[in-house]
Amino acid sequence: MHVSGDTLTSVQKNGVLRVGVALNAPWVLRDKNGQWIGLEIDFIRQLTKDMHWKLELVPTTWASAIGDLRDGHFDLLASGLSVTPQRTLLLKYSQSYGDFPLGLVVNRKSLGNDDLLALEKGGKHRIGVLAGTVTQATANTWLGNSEVVDINDESQALKDVRSGKLDGLIAEQPLPQATANAYADQLRSLDVSKFGKTAHAFAVRLNDQNLLDVVNAWLIYEKASGFIADREDFWLHSTAWVELM
User: Does residue 144 carry a pLDDT above 90?
Assistant: First the structure.
């Protein structure tokens, strides 16, 4: 595996960019046919098209994603990765392309008229959260009196919320609000904006500044072109993508 710090030269030579992807809707998810879709999938497909590279998607998990990047299993991590100062000891971030508040979608029947205070103080509710994420740590802090359930697949977790197997799912917006709107007869959202926001960016290994320069230039280029705004309109400001899950 190539971990020498000259990744850009290797990518240029081989014509292939290996991108690690972990489920995190709507940034990275699989559609009903098992194909990778999402905001960052659209981004990296356009990036490799613009650079005349082939794209190789490498599945990873939130538990192993950063370690897999550092060990050379792929060249770039694109999974709606939250920026934290602690992670900068392990990887190098691109420019952030946006920040996203946390949201909570709940089953109407399971919670009845219970509000956020009941979740914060009570101990009877089961709330799903992606394992290994910054959101997981936040959920444990704010909803520690509820049962915080580690999940690895938000699509399945949303089915479980709709059926009542889970009482709710906490995630970055727009997933909670979009799914509450799409399944309004079964789900509703609770305002957890006080829990905070997270900023998202791509990541490379610490010594891959040359590759990072390309990614940052691409973000500037496609922001100016309108491509990024167009894709964000679909993935962040509409609910059409929920039916693809």
Answer: no
